[in-house]
Design goal:
By secondary structure, the protein is mostly helical.
């Protein structure tokens, strides 16, 4: 049975138990489930049942489940809860999860929720929110452990036993000097295997990787991917340790950035919510702008056809191949652009690779165009004449090469102009390729056919 069907059956069974008032059975069932499964179940139910399910969870499990819910479900749950319940949930959230929640809420709601926090928690939340949106500083948590270089391994391990429960990760420990500056990082495994009398300073190698609090989140994703760490420290410009960022937060960022790129590639303004939660009005506003813009761009294709009206009248068979040619050009451009945009997003290519990419794409597209040109030559010959076959073949080679180079160059130009390369979307490139394809096709036809 598929997970989706199983989830639906569990939802129906749980709702039946709730309706029958068998709350103890529901509580017992929930206590046996992993937190991610419970989060999915709560997101799937609605209204009072959602709040009731959440209230049946033990406090520690409820705190974990809440942090796994999407932002919209979190907001709905908070709206259904009493003030004291909300305060307990906010206090239990890690600083980075709390900041993520506040980011999704209207300013007035955020102000109200900040008032429920303790002075220390409020100061911490305001500090993280003061960082520019999209920066690493908003992802930080202060739940980490630091040890002193002068401690012995035994003293460091004893400190971990006393304070480790409050840390988000124990895989890595951080070494700071008397001014709070990050000196090094130390794997717990190395500390455990060391001689108990060894000094922490003897276990250090001075090599560590840190993020800047003002660094862009997309850059942080690349750093995590490169070094494959579970967590990375975050410092200010003076090297003072401010917090850590864990891989679960980076995965959320990577997912959000990928989703945004997909939206841009198909010319949809990025949604700041799930598709399920988006209203008809939101979907309309996100899509209509680009579509209207592309309508005006595509007018130039019609204008290009009008220019060569005499050519079309002289050889009507040319019209048959027009959709084939401009479609091939747009498809080739969309392929090239998708490869380039994805490679840029993952850091596989940089500005120094531009000329190499251009020349390689020229070679690849020429080979592809030649094969496609040979294929359509015989069709053109059969449906028109030998000259029509030559026109179609030459046009196919040219439009495939031109479309591919547009798909390669446009993302590079946007990147150089400090714009998102994903804006070089498939519909945009296809529209540009259509215009050029019309001009190229009928220009070759006029030259070869002598019209």
């Amino acid at each position: 049975m598929s997970p989706m069907i199983l989830s639906h059956l569990l939802k129906v069974e749980i709702l039946e138990l709730l309706e029958a008032g068998r709350l103890n059975d529901v509580r017992e069932f929930l206590n046996q489930q992993p937190a991610p499964e419970i989060a999915e179940l709560i997101e799937a139910v609605a209204g009072k049942d959602r709040a009731l399910l959440f209230r049946l969870l033990p406090r520690r499990l409820a705190d974990t489940v809440f942090s796994l819910l999407d932002a919209n479900t979190q907001n709905l749950l908070l709206a259904d809860m009493a003030q004291e319940e909300v305060r307990q949930i906010l206090s239990a959230l890690s600083p980075d999860d709390r900041t993520a929640l506040f980011e999704e809420m209207p300013a007035a709601v955020t102000q109200r929720l900040l008032g429920l926090l303790t002075d220390k928690e409020r100061k911490q939340a305001l500090t993280l929110l003061s960082y520019p949106e999209g920066n690493v500083g908003r992802l930080m948590t202060d739940r980490y452990l630091t040890v002193q270089p002068s401690w012995t391994a035994a003293e460091a391990l004893e400190y971990i036993r006393k304070h480790g429960m409050d840390s988000e990760t124990l895989a890595m420990l951080y070494i700071t000097d008397d001014k709070g500056r990050l000196v090094d990082e130390l794997r717990l495994r190395k500390l455990i295997l060391a001689n108990p009398s060894s000094r922490v300073s003897e276990l250090l190698d001075g090599k560590f990787v840190a993020l800047s609090s003002l660094q862009d989140r997309e850059e942080a994703v690349k750093v995590f991917r490169k070094y494959d760490f579970y967590a990375l420290p975050v410092t200010d410009e003076d090297g003072v340790l401010l917090g850590i960022v864990t891989v679960d937060d980076i995965l959320d960022v990577a997912e959000a950035e990928t989703t945004e790129d997909f939206h841009k590639i198909v010319t949809v303004s990025p949604l700041q919510m799930s598709l399920r939660d988006a209203t008809l009005g939101v979907l309309y506003r996100k899509r209509i702008g680009w579509l209207l813009g592309l309508v005006f761009v595509n007018i130039f294709s019609g204008a290009g056809i009008a220019i060569f009206e005499d050519t079309i009248a002289a050889v009507v068979a040319l019209v048959f191949f027009l959709p084939l040619l401009i479609g091939s050009s747009g498809n080739a451009g969309a392929q090239a652009a998708t490869l380039i945009v994805r490679a840029m997003a993952t850091g596989e290519i940089g500005r120094h690779d531009w000329w190499w990419l251009f020349t390689r794409e020229l070679g690849v597209s020429s080979a592809i165009g030649a094969v496609m040109g040979i294929a359509v030559f015989f069709i053109g010959w059969a449906m028109g004449s030998l000259k029509v076959g030559i026109v179609v073949a030459l046009s196919m080679i040219t439009v495939v090469v031109v479309g591919s180079l547009i798909g390669t160059v446009l993302p590079m130009l946007l990147n150089k102009a400090k714009m998102d390369p994903a804006t070089a979307s498939a519909p945009l490139i296809t529209s540009i390729a259509d215009i050029l394809g019309v001009l190229i096709y009928f220009s070759i036809a006029r030259a070869v056919l002598g019209i």
